[in-house]
Amino acid sequence: xxxxxxxxxxxxxxxxxxxxxxxxxxxxxxxxxxxxxxxxxxxxxxxxxxxxxxxxxxxxxxxxxxxxxxxxxxxxxxxxxxxxxxxxxxxxxxxxxxxxxxxxxxxxxxxxxxxxxxxxxxxxxxxxxxxxxxxxxxxxxxxxxxxxxxxxxxxxxxxxxxxxxxxxxxxxxxxxxxxxxxxxxxxxxxxxxxxxxxxxxxxxxxxxxxxxxxxxxxxxxxxxxxxxxxxxxxxxxxxxxxxxxxxxxxxxxxxxxxxxxxxxxxxxxxxxxxxxxxxxxxxxxxxxxxxxxxxxxxxxxxxxxxxxxxxxxxxxxxxxxxxxxxxxxxxx
Length: 332
Fold this sequence. Notes:
Layout: H1 12-68, H2 78-81, E1 83-85, E2 95-98, H3 107-125, H4 137-159, H5 164-188, H6 192-201, H7 210-233, E3 235-238, E4 244-249, E5 252-258, E6 262-267, H8 271-276, E7 281-287, E8 293-300, H9 303-313, H10 321-331
Antiparallel strand pairs: 1-2, 2-3, 3-4, 4-5, 6-7, 7-8
């Protein structure tokens, strides 16, 4: 372009505009990238925080549920009190189960006490309210009688083991007493049951909410500590890989039973504990002939289920990787 020539509109100006536009585009692209990156960071951080919150809630539930509902069934307290069967669908997971002391006979007394205590506390809070109904006093008296019944049964089962003979004798004695009472009423023309009921209704068994709730709180906390102790001190493990049933005592293996020709027999020394405490019994480990006792594992919830799980896992023996290589070399 000559000096005397006037630049046309759109020549040099458009070139300069075109030259200045790429930095703006690059800046906008950088901002978009930073925004996307910040969004990903926030998303991942939120995901990690949510995972941590869920884990904390699960762990809290795992321990707090034992205080209020120490029932060894799925989704309540089975993993804390009975057994854990990881990857149970394909039968290849690790099996863990725990021995429990006689103290677990109080599990029903704990949750019944919480129910009675909560109902009594509810009546106390709604007392005098017009639109909120109270639980009738006859119902509360019936719950108090039920709590006392559970207390008596708990003490009885904790102190005495009713085997087959003792359970049969107990059942026969109860039937004889009931039949004799009914016969006496029919023959003697007396009202024994009705008069007994009237006398029982005169007994003041009102517990309120304090006594059952305090008892359940103490027993529940003790149950929680006992379950944690048993998981550390008396845990049996059949690993995913390996040929052993191992007993751990504070992370130290002190007993090992090798896979192979073993027989597992579930027994119930006390029939009342079996039916009241979710199959609470023992597992006997014997040799292939079932004669020589190798180990006796006491205090197992769902003893039959755990015994069957052990049988299924002891049906096969794991082969080491080195042995597989040697077999492949011999075949090659």
